[in-house]
Amino acid sequence: QVQLVESGGGLVQPGGSLRLSCAASGSILSANAMGWYRQAPGKQRELVARISTGGNTYYADSVKGRFTISRDNAKNTVYLQMNSLRSEDTAVYYCNAVRALTGRPFLDWGQGTQVTVSS
Questions:
Q1: Which residue, 20, 34, 95, 117, could crosslink 80 as a Cys pair with Cβ 3.0–4.6 Å?
Q2: CA-based angle 68:40:23, to the nearest 5?
Q3: Helix (H, G, I), strand (E, B), or coil: what is residue 22?
Q4: Residue 105 pairs with which residues in a beta bridge?
Q5: What span, in angstroms and rounded, lies between the C-alpha atoms of 60 and 8?
């Protein structure tokens, strides 16, 4: 059973930065595209950023230019650097592997990491 463990969340002021990490067991990370998702209270989970096995990236319009996704296959870890944070970025952030054909996440969700942007 592959496990995903997200970390790095916290409380930050508007305009601040955080770097999230997602550690995956086994070789799942190196073999698949990986995505960061978030779910705010009362809202559906949404895709924030995705990175292919080759390093190609996709960002939701709401985070483009502020967030950067990266991966370190040797460490089985994917990162999300978040800059210029806004209150609307407040959410629980999750990572998951993404099927190439469907673009959908396919692993059991981890516990996520809470990001709260507030003054």
A1: 20
A2: 45
A3: strand
A4: 98
A5: 20
Q: What is the pLDDT of residues 68-108, one digit of tens each?
A: 999 999 999 999 999 999 999 999 999 999 998 888 999 99
* Share of the chain residues as helix, strand and coil, in percent rounded to the nearest 5: 10, 45, 45
CA dihedral 41, 21, 78, 118 (to 10 degrees): 40
22, burial (CB in 10 Å: exposed 0-12, middle 13-18, buried 19+): buried
Residues 6 or more apart from 77 whose CB is under 8 A from it? 21, 22, 23, 24, 29, 71
* CB burial string 10-21: b at 16+ within 10 A, e below: eebeeeeebebb
The rounded distance, in Å, linking the Cα atoms of 2 and 13 is 34
What is the DSSP-derived secondary structure letter of residue 105? B
Tokens of 15: 């305009």
